[in-house]
Amino acid sequence: MKVVIVGGVAAGPKAASRIIRMDPDADVTIFEKGEFLSYAGCGLPYYISGVVSEQKELMATPVGAIRDSVFFQNVKNVEVHNRTTVTEVDRENHRAKYVTEDGTEGYIDYDKLVLATGANNIKPRLPGIELGNIFSLKGVEDAESIREQLSELSARDVVIVGGGLIGIEVTEALVDMGCRVTIIELLPQILPMLDPEMAGLVERYLEANGVKVVTGYGVTGFNGDGVVESVSTSNGTYNAEMVILSIGVRPSVELATGCGLEIGTTGAIKIDEHMRTSDPDIFAVGDCAEKVNIVTGKPCYVPMGSTANKEGRVAANSICGIDDTFPGVLGSTVCKVFDFTLARTGLGEKEAKDAGYDVMTAYAPAPDKAHFMPTAKPIAIKLIADKKTRKLLGAQAVGEGVADKRMDVAAVAINCGMTVDQVAQLDLTYAPPFAPAVDNILTAANVLRNKLDGHMTGIMPDEVKKMFDDGVDFQFLDVRSPDEVKQAKIEGSINIPLGKLRTSLDTLDKNKPVVAYCKISLRGYEAALILKHAGFKDVVVMDGGQFMWPYKTVKV
Strand locations in 68-165, DSSP E? Predict the structure, then answer.
């Protein structure tokens, strides 16, 4: 069996390695248009910052072997042609045309063809886009150019165009190297993978670390003489000795469209659960291939290296006659910026509503370990569930604490169709250095259960802000301690510490609505129960407490 694979970064080499393991007699050839093979693309920001000191570490196995063409030939028995582009696929005659870097053309026959052509960075057609020192971050060569240029810059004003994952990840690398960084994002928020209030936490954290974040304004052009000197936007001009474009990617489907393969609604190559395209002898894997959302069952496009590797294995198994399928994705994502972690899985709140679900959400900010441990750090978790079935639909976590493992638990729960009631009873590991006695994800599930069961009525911070703006006559009850209030207070609030609330009920008006809160609204929930028992009729709790309040606070 002769297998030709187009693309040698993630999914392609994975498929090649699996095919050879399952069928040692197979004839497998990889074509890669770039120089480097099987490298860790997600590690590029850490190579820029110097955390990864040498380029070769991105292409090494865990034991240090470099995955180059010699490695694939000697260890995998896979022939590799790098710096070679496949330009055409002749489906009728089962052959592909290729062109080497020096212009030499050739043809290769195949029994099975695997397209792992990846994705292309979006490059806007704007004035000045061809100026020097404007980079994208797609491959090792890009990272090398950025790293070299940073070593030569004296004043280091860098503008990142786009506030998605790559832009956020590279921000830390640039700041670590002494750059003054401005992120410009056309959308109203950075990190569209997160719900707005969760992204707001990240935005405030970035600004606290000296990063300027500009949202809601688009770039209109780049200015300079030979090299970029500034970036023009609909909100003014920003100095820039370097620009990094991080607007997003589009699936690389030119080869597929050229040979008449079906393209999906997302613009990526349409595939079945075995990774087959509309041609049964051609497979598509990785960032060029369309995905299916596990929750909704609808097509989606979520390009991730982790997904690419899984898809490469499924395609290889299918080619070798092994019954294997790829069920789809939840969009599980994690990102580090400075000491902050942000992670998500499943549907966001708007995605869930757009999919037709009657949604209930809950916030649960808390320390990631037993609060008395010196290593405990805060994280905020948001859960999204369906009111009717009580099934968990999505989860997000942001903060300095350990967020990834909570999202991994949520991913498993969503994948298995678990309800929030089942999640709340999961037997997770516990010891003070690792988690609270009731883990954060379990606490979040219990908050959501209380809301679903009518034991707690929540209100989001933005809804509270709107009540103030609209002049609603209500009582905004802060039940934190006086010392907490001195550090930061929300204007318009009334402070009655929880321990004094039962003896101070006569200071509140039973005929006016009450919104209760504390730092994370655990005490706010306790306060609401006390008030309801005392005859207050209209009492709600501000979800997430002051931790989730995205607006201005004052010091007393």
Answer: 79-82, 84-90, 95-100, 105-109, 112-115, 119-121, 134-136, 157-161
